[in-house]
Design a protein that fits this description.
Radius of gyration: 19 Å
Strand order of the largest sheet: 6-13-11-9-7-8
Number of helices: 9
Distance between the termini: 39 Å
CATH superfamily of the largest domain: LpxI C-terminal catalytic domain
CATH class of the largest domain: Alpha Beta
CATH architecture of the largest domain: 3-Layer(aba) Sandwich
């Protein structure tokens, strides 16, 4: 019988996708939903608890009470300011580490949380351990193929995204005609695309490139795209999207391909 899974649910559709997959496979789940982050639909019909960010001890206690053995981080969580955190005693004991990690980026923070869960005996698993069809494959998905200028923009995007990732800043960059229109920081990919819509130059479209950070804890916060990403890229006026094969997630691949074909965008898995 499958072990019970605890889902630390951030925003977006990924947590609900994991819940649906587990239930279909007969696996019990328990959702830790975070206030102002988790989509309420994720919790419908499944055991869950709502919590503010910063309750590390309470999170661990809930997971133990629910007899969860495996834990997954699913979906993005906006990093709060320290003044808005509501830490419990377990979190307060970690504040020194957390403050130091906060200056090093999101991956450093996630690594601390993974280590804390593992110290309590939980097995932290990755999204791609649970969903077999989400890892980005290499090559073109859909009808459109990147052109010569697109390939050059992808190459530049890889270089910039790798530099960003090495500094633990972000995972995404938008490049058009050899010019970097924007890089992802704390705002996330959706806001990056919205910002770049007003910066786009005339002529050849542009490319969104997303890569895993070089030092990233791959069980948490892998680069992710879905059909909504395609729609937002189309609204921005881009030619396509390039994601790192095997190190990025594509949610609902059939819908992603259908939307890419509908809007005339390419989606491709690349080696970085």
């Amino acid at each position: 019988m499958p072990t019970k899974l605890g889902i630390l649910a951030g925003g977006g559709p990924l947590p609900a996708r994991i819940v649906k997959s587990c239930l279909a496979a007969g696996r019990d789940v328990f959702v830790i939903a975070f206030e102002n982050e988790t989509d309420p639909k994720t919790c419908e019909g499944v055991p869950h608890v709502w919590m503010p960010l910063g309750k590390v001890g309470a999170t661990i206690n809930h997971l133990k009470t629910e007899n969860c053995t495996d834990v997954v981080f699913a979906g993005p969580v906006r990093r709060p300011s320290f003044s808005k955190l509501k830490p419990d005693m377990r979190a307060i004991k970690l504040l020194g580490k957390i403050r130091k990690a906060a200056g090093q980026g999101d991956n450093a923070l996630l690594t601390i949380l993974v280590e804390e869960l593992e110290s309590e005996g939980f097995r932290v698993v990755g999204t791609d351990d649970l969903l077999n069809d989400v890892a980005a494959p290499e090559g073109i998905l859909g009808d459109r193929v990147p052109g010569k200028i697109d390939h050059k923009d992808i190459i530049l995007g890889i270089r910039v995204a790798q530099a960003l990732g090495a500094l633990d800043v972000g995972q995404a960059v938008v490049v058009q005609q050899g010019v970097v229109l924007g890089v992802e920081a704390i705002e996330g990919t959706d806001a990056l695309l919205e910002r770049c819509a007003g910066l786009k130059r005339e002529g050849q479209g542009g490319v969104l490139v997303k890569l895993k950070k070089p030092q990233q804890e791959r069980r948490a916060d892998l680069p992710t795209i879905g059909a909504d990403t395609v729609r937002r890229a189309a609204k921005t006026g881009l030619n396509g999207i390039a994601v790192e094969e095997g190190q990025s997630l594509i949610l609902d691949r059939a819908e992603v391909v259908a939307e890419a074909n509908r809007f005339g965008l390419f989606v491709t898995g690349i080696k970085a």
